[in-house]
């Protein structure tokens, strides 16, 4: 795997702890989704379907997707074209990678800001099967995951800036 496609080496305990935090978060969400879907199937089979099952499963899947994206950002696991970047001379490759990181950081800063701005509007809506859970709680995954992705991307940007030939 090329340097540009691989996860930067854990250069400190903070980075390693952040990676473990994201892995645990995604792992817990996977287990909760598994248990919720299993319970839904069991109760439906017994003739007592859970009224909230589908809506909660959809929400958990969305959360897993967003927080999983943060983990993928940390591990540098998103789709890319490292072969093209690796063909560039080192200085050009470094400059392009830094520029790309800045664009990604700008995008997720915008996503996080817009996601946070929409939350008060969603506070008046709630889940249809669980009215006590408002939509702002469910949609909070957008600014939170954007912030988690920003942390991972800034770590990568710092590594790129520090990188020596």
Commentary on this structure:
This protein has one domain. The chain is 73% helix and 0% strand. Helix 1 packs antiparallel against helix 2, helix 2 (53-74) runs parallel beside helix 6 and helix 4 (90-122) packs antiparallel against helix 6 (141-162). It is mostly helical. The longest helix has 33 residues, at 13-45. The protein is elongated, with a radius of gyration of 20 Å.
List the topology elements.
Elements: H1 13-45, H2 53-74, H3 82-86, H4 90-122, H5 135-139, H6 141-162
In this structure, how is the largest beta sheet organized? none
Global mean pLDDT: 90
**In percent terms, what proportion of residues is strand?**
under 5%
Number of strands: 0
Q: What distinguishing features does this structure have?
A:
single chain; 6 helices; mainly alpha; 165 residues; disordered N terminus
């Amino acid at each position: 795997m090329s340097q540009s496609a691989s996860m930067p080496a854990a250069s400190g305990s903070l980075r390693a702890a952040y990676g473990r935090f994201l892995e645990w978060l995604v792992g817990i969400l996977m287990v909760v989704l598994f248990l919720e879907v299993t319970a839904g199937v069991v109760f439906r089979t017994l003739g007592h379907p859970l009224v909230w099952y589908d809506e909660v499963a959809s929400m958990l899947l969305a959360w897993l997707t967003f927080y999983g994206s943060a983990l993928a950002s940390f591990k540098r696991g998103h789709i890319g074209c490292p072969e093209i970047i690796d063909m560039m001379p080192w200085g050009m490759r470094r400059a392009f990678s830094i520029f790309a990181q800045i664009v990604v950081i700008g995008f997720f800063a915008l996503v996080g800001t817009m996601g946070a701005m929409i939350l008060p509007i969603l506070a008046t809506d709630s889940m249809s099967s669980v009215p006590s859970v408002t939509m702002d709680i469910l949609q909070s995954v957008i600014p939170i995951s954007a912030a988690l992705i920003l942390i991972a991307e800034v770590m990568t940007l710092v590594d790129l800036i520090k990188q020596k030939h």
